[in-house]
Amino acid sequence: MSTNEPPPEQPVPPPSGGYGEVPPPPPTGGYGEAPPPPPPGYAGAPPVGGGAYSASTAWSYGWKKFTSNLGSILIAILVLVAVQIVFQVLSYSVRGSYVLSFLIGLASWIVTMIIGAGVVRGALDITEGRELDPKTLLTPQKLGEVIIASVLIGIATFVGLILLVIPGLLIAFFTSFTLYFLMDRPELGAIDAIKASFEFTKSHAGDVIVWFLLSLLTYIVGFCLCGVGLIAAIPVIILGTAYTYKTLNNEPVAA
Q1: Number of folded domains that form the chain
Q2: Can you spell out the DSSP letters for the chain?
Q3: 149 belongs to a structural domain
């Protein structure tokens, strides 16, 4: 044999876990297994107490929260009635003075803006599991943004109503959740809240239309009960609207 022949190649040993060995088990949630559920508060998790949305579920939620918060809601109603009576008395007492009448009217309008925002904030508080504090209704919250949004929407709706009515109704419909976005999201200003309401309503137009029709029916029934039924109808509508806003935005809702 020639001494110049290369030595024979040595076989390469198989890697660990190779020939004949059982492969390691797949990790949890691996081959074919369903992934574990997301932790609480995960963005893709279903809202707590929310579930699939329907207008009837929103109405039932509004009624449930109205009855379970009856005491604080009645106190809030009494506070609002008292405020309105005060402004009515003041308006009557200065009716001979145009300047004072204007100033009282302006103050009444500003207070109405505060109350409107406070009512929405109170409804959102209830959907978030907090008790309604009647003081919330008279606490100014983002008052400047609320006034700007109200003026812009009011002007646009008025112009739209002049233009064959339907454009005004559409503006009122698409901007109907503006206050909810303003009160729920501190980072939004008036313009951004109007845009957010438009996009929200456009994306969920079917659900929102059905809810508004049910709300209108609820209001009519409450009004027909000698007006007393509105004491229940209006809170149910506001709470149901807050539930609609939260659930369709995939935000948690207190059961």
Answers
A1: 1
A2: --TTSPPPPPPPPPPTT-TTPPPPPPPTT-TTPPPPPPPTT-TTSPPTTT-S--HHHHHHHHHHHHHHTHHHHHHHHHHHHHHHHHHHHHHHHTTT-HHHHHHHHHHHHHHHHHHHHHHHHHHHHHHTTPPP-GGGGGS--SHHHHHHHHHHHHHHHHHHHHTTSHHHHHHHHHTTTHHHHHHH-TT--HHHHHHHHHHHHHHTHHHHHHHHHHHHHHHHHHHHTTTTTHHHHHHHHHHHHHHHHHHHTT-----
A3: no
Q: What is the pTM of this model?
A: 0.75
Report which of residues 196 and 41 the model is more confident about: 196
Residue 76 domain flag: yes
The answer to whether residue 242 is domain-embedded is yes
> Is 68 inside a domain boundary?
yes
CA 246 to centroid of chain Cα atoms: 4
**Per-residue model confidence as pLDDT tens digits over 193-221:** 999 999 999 999 999 999 999 999 999 99
